[in-house]
Specification:
Blueprint lengths: L1 H15 L6 H21 L2 H27 L1
């Protein structure tokens, strides 16, 4: 999941000839974060759980901003 988000970002940036972070980047980030969070819970690693929780919050926040921008546009 995490590798795919960079492939998508690279392809979209190449297409537009400038650096762009597409919406799919955040969805792949979220999916990868949830997978890693699940694993962290499975192995009961509190530091790993906390780290992934923060990442998931950031990915969700960015998706929220994207959705909010689409509604107001």
């Amino acid at each position: 999941m995490f590798s795919m988000r960079f492939v998508i970002q690279w392809l979209v940036s190449e297409k537009h000839k400038k650096s762009i972070i597409p919406e799919a980047f955040w969805y792949f980030s979220l999916a990868g974060g949830i997978i890693l969070f699940s694993y962290a819970v499975h192995i009961k690693d509190p530091v790993f759980i906390l780290g992934q929780s923060i990442g998931i919050f950031i990915y969700l926040r960015n998706i929220y901003f994207i959705k909010k921008q689409k509604v107001t546009a």
